[in-house]
């Protein structure tokens, strides 16, 4: 390694070490409350719109199961959400999980990162408008992280929006700056839930998944074939991604009335 490269690496490492020492939760900025349009959140986000519903209860079970996977020696703090193909319910599932975790009685701080740099719509689902910059700009420019984190208005939940679609999303997600960013954010939030594009059409979930603690695969019931899911799992395995589990969406339950009474 040349002397200049070595010096640059040292400067980057020193910068990272300095940033890591900053106090916990120091990066969250408050945005103008007018941006959140009085909680105009998509009703599919049931953990917010109907937290007592049987579906919301399923997200609480998921939260419990995820917590039980985590141990002191191997904590699970960075959790990606992906699926084999598009439109299986990744974003809505991820948001429901993030809100359910934010509602945790232990008051955990949750960051929802929109890392679907190709088709970002998380801020719209949360009813947040006028996003000027997000992960995409942060990875390309010398922006401060304070400028892109948004308080959602939901207690304990912060959003890192995707920003404008870049030309090279996979390269940005594979960059050293992305690793650095994850490391900084891990020190400032209890959990980071990361929305990603689907596995089969693009490489982004593989690139990102290998840098985080694991991925949850969303599978749309009655649509995505078993061999398609297996192929996606194979691609994630090849990329060194830990698959934490699977969530089925669009499942229709026909529960007898007496069961609802206990939920
Ligand atoms: N659990 C669910 N049950 C039924 N429908 C759902 C569920 N989750 C999401 N949907 C619906 O499915 C559609 C796609 O949802 P979503 O945007 O979350 O999918 P996605 O996998 O993130 O899509 P993309 O691949 O485009 O990012 C939306 O219309 C949403 O309302
Ligand atoms: Mg999505």
Look at the structure and give the CATH class.
Answer: Alpha Beta
Number of strands: 7
Tell me what the CATH architecture is: 3-Layer(aba) Sandwich
The molecules bound to the chains, other than polymers, are: adenosine-5'-triphosphate, magnesium ion
Low-confidence stretches: 18-37
Q: Under CATH, the topology is which?
A: Rossmann fold
Q: State the secondary-structure class.
A: alpha/beta
Mean pLDDT: 85
Report strand order across the widest sheet.
3-4-2-5-1-6-7
Radius of gyration: 19 Å
- Number of domain modules: 1
Describe the protein's architecture and organization:
This protein has 263 residues and is of the alpha/beta class. The chain has a single domain, classed as Rossmann fold (3-Layer(aba) Sandwich), CATH 3.40.50.300. The chain has eleven helices and seven strands. It has a seven-stranded mixed beta sheet with strand order 3-4-2-5-1-6-7, sandwiched between helices. Helix 10 links the parallel strand 6 and strand 7. Helix 3 packs across helix 4. The structure holds adenosine-5'-triphosphate and magnesium ion. The site of adenosine-5'-triphosphate has 15 residues, from helix 4.
